[in-house]
Amino acid sequence: MITDKGKKFFYKGDDLHTQYGCIKKPEIEKAKPGDVLKTNTGKEMLLTNGIFMDFYSKIKRGAQIIPLKDMGSIVAQTGINSKSRVLEAGSGSGGLCCFLANIVEKVFTYEIREDFAKIVKKNIENLNLTNVEQKHKDIYEGIDEKNLDLVVLDLPEPWKVVPHVKAIKHGGFLVSYSPCTPQVSDFIEDVSKSDELIYIKTVEIIEREWEFSGRKIRPKSQPIGHSGFMSFVRRI
Ligand code: SAH
After folding, report:
1. Lowest-pLDDT range, 8-17, 86-95, 162-171?
2. Which residue has a Cα nearest atom 23 of ligand 1?
3. DSSP code, position 165
4. Could you give the count of Cα atoms lying within 13 Å of 213 in the half-sphere of its Cβ?
5. Domain 55-235 has CATH 3.40.50.720
6. Which CATH number fits domain 1-50: 3.40.50.1220, 3.90.79.10, 3.10.330.20, 1.10.10.10?
7. Which of the listed residues 100, 154, 180, 187 should we mutate to test ligand 1's pocket, taking the one with most ligand atoms within 8 A of CB?
8. Of 50, 109, 137, 171, which sees the most CB atoms within 10 A?
């Protein structure tokens, strides 16, 4: 459900309670997408089906998740699509895992912490994703899968995955996401020593939101936060 101001409320099979009042279950059940319903305080709300990203925005968080601007760049640079098989580690909260699962054929996700793996399992179920295989496994020890189109790392020591790149198909991508530069340089150093990998580039994506309010048209007054650097590498 969405109010006229764009605030989203999710119907979970019961009366919907919001700060704008309540809508009873039977009223919601008999409505169809596009109908406007009224709360008991008279606030109008539009009923819609919602898209994947509406539900994605509600996922449970444990570990810090990769922001959308960065995940979008990984998809754009590597060209992954509905036929791609992708591995990502560690699963963390499942932010990247679920985002990728909505795009590609199959996602394998490795995580060493069981408490995080449980959060990821819940997020996968809540989003009705059926193409994810979770593994309780240390990726530094090896990769079981073969012929992968992409391996994405969001790990403290990504260079420890360089010896396992045979899991990636020829021409496929290895992408490492790190918040700090020492991890990036150690990763690139090991990539450069490998005769199976070509280092392409490291980027930081900066997103600056603007406000449009009458004649007050300017970048929003907020600092541009740093998320991480992405290093793109190809298997040859
Ligand atoms: N990209 C994730 C967040 C990853 S946080 C997201 O968008 O939600 C990093 C995760 O890597 C943590 O959960 C940590 O437990 C896990 N991790 C650290 N070392 C690992 C290893 N060697 N193998 C698998 N997972 C690992």
Report:
1. 8-17
2. 138
3. G
4. 7
5. no
6. 3.10.330.20
7. 154
8. 109
